[in-house]
Amino acid sequence: MNFDFSDDAKALSESARRMLAAHAGPEAARRIMESDAPYDAALWRQVVDLGLTAARVPEAHGGVGLSPEESCVLAEEFGRSLAPVPFLSTLLATEALLLAGSEAQQAKHLPGIADGSTIACHAWGEGANSPAAMPATRAEGGRLTGAKSPVADALAASLAVVTAAGEDGPALWLVDLKDAAVAPAATLDLVRKHGTITLSGTPAEPLGTPADYQRFLDRAAVILAFEAIGTAGAAMETAVAYAKDRVAFGQRIGRYQGVKHKCADMYIKLELARAHALYGAWAFAADADELRHAAAAARAASLDAVRFAAEENVQLHGGIGFTWESDCQFYYRRARQISAALGNRAFWADRLVRALEQRNRAAA
Is the dihedral of CA 92, 223, 350, 345 positive or negative? Predict the structure, then answer.
């Protein structure tokens, strides 16, 4: 059982990191934060030209047909770079179509995703409260009614994968956003713009079954765990670099035991999250029975890592870390957004417990 990524996945990761290091990062994030643009269109074109939107799309639909582990490595790089483009939202929609889409739905939407002309989002949340087992948004007669907010990249998207409750339970639906009302939504993350999607008897296509929805949640949790790891890693590297450079009382602050302990704790939480995420990536690629609890553990551990690293990065920078001019805010704000997207830590901890109980009952 090999939990490491393949050489091809590592090469793709390095290629994406080089491109994002040149065109994304805090400077690009600040530029988009201070503008009204929903995303960085020039960077999106670079992402498309590098073939990243086509990575998971099958060759029959104009893509490259790479494996799930490529989604994971790309999610980490986009999380690391704070890239202000709707890549992760479109990637989640791609995974939903690959998992649950009919041949007609895949043929209709995947070619546009591959060539970058279709931007998609995943409308899951319904306010700031913890997610309910049954969404308030209802599906009836092929139409959806309700409001989804905040939805990352909704202002840029033309296609939404919406979670809604039907007669058999919550499931995924495809919505053409030209039929819905989309308005800006205020969130703490000022770089990745969010919106509110209001559905008033809006036409929608069912995307798989309620069981497919639960399987999609597992896969999305693994992908977003890697996004969190990328952001946590960048926050930790920022803190360590500052500790090595900042001088106080005649010596660099990294020499102080208290600072060393904080950096060590960040590293430990990050590596623990990575171990869980790699297990989840293996289970995702193998479609293994362990995916349910591996995904939940990866999600919970990654949220612990990103929250801790983002907060300690601000603390280690002292007073400057709280200022508007400091780049620390980007990682802190993104960590809060990551923690709220796709359910909070309590949701995934509960899901982990239930998955382990089910496994133990089956083994008894």
Answer: negative
**Residue 3: other Cβ atoms inside 10 A:** 13
Residue that is written with structure tokens 């713009």 in the block? 193
Distance separating alpha carbons of residues 16 and 22, to the nearest angstrom: 10
DSSP 39: S
- Which 3 state secondary structure label does DSSP give 153? coil
Name the residue with tokens 């660099």.
252
The CA-based dihedral angle spanning residues 111, 100, 90, 25, taken in that order and rounded to the nearest 10 degrees: -130
- Vertex 84, ends 87 and 114: CA angle to 5°? 25
Asked whether 272 and 305 are in contact (CB, 8 A), the reply is: yes
Tens-digit pLDDT profile for residues 310-358: 999 999 998 888 888 889 999 999 999 998 888 889 899 999 999 999 8
Characterize 116-128 residue by residue with b for buried, 16 or more Cβ atoms within 10 angstroms of its Cβ, and e for exposed.
bebbbbbbbbbee
Concatenated DSSP letters of 237-249 = HHHHHHHHH-EET
pTM for the whole structure: 0.94
